[in-house]
Amino acid sequence: MTFTRRRRQLSLDAFFQIPAVPDTSDENNQAELERLKRALRLAIQEALTERQQECLTLYYFEGCSMKQTADRLGIGEPTVSKHLKKARARLKAVLRYSLASPRLS
Predict the structure, then answer these.
(1) What is the SS3 string spanning 40-80?
(2) Where are the domains of the chain?
(3) What is the pLDDT of residues 44-80, one digit of tens each?
(4) What is the CATH number of domain 27-104?
(5) Following CA atoms 36, 37, 43, 46 in sequence, which dihedral angle do they give, to the nearest 10 degrees?
(6) What's the predicted TM-score (pTM) here?
(7) pLDDT higher than 50, residue 105
(8) Which residues contact 39 (CB under 8 A, 6 or more apart)?
(9) Average pLDDT, the chain
């Protein structure tokens, strides 16, 4: 019996399409969307290590495969996977805290 592992895709665009994100047609909603984008940018810049940022950028924003990301950074695929997993966990924790905090508004 052969098991194949499904590749998990995380689109950061989906972050802005969740029901908690308001319709951007009105000015107040546009401000809320900007607050969410600012929180994501700050979380990436301040909460992640340089290597996690590089892996995240190449894999999610530039659309490189795990192998391409590993080759460009000169590290192994399992290492890229580890950095992405840790980055996602860290972003989740930081954004959960940041979005609950009025500090970013």
Answers:
(1) HHHHHHHHCCHHHHHHHHHHHHCCCCHHHHHHHHCCCHHHH
(2) 27-104
(3) 899 999 999 999 999 988 999 999 999 999 999 999 9
(4) 1.10.10.10
(5) -130
(6) 0.64
(7) no
(8) 95, 98, 99, 104
(9) 79
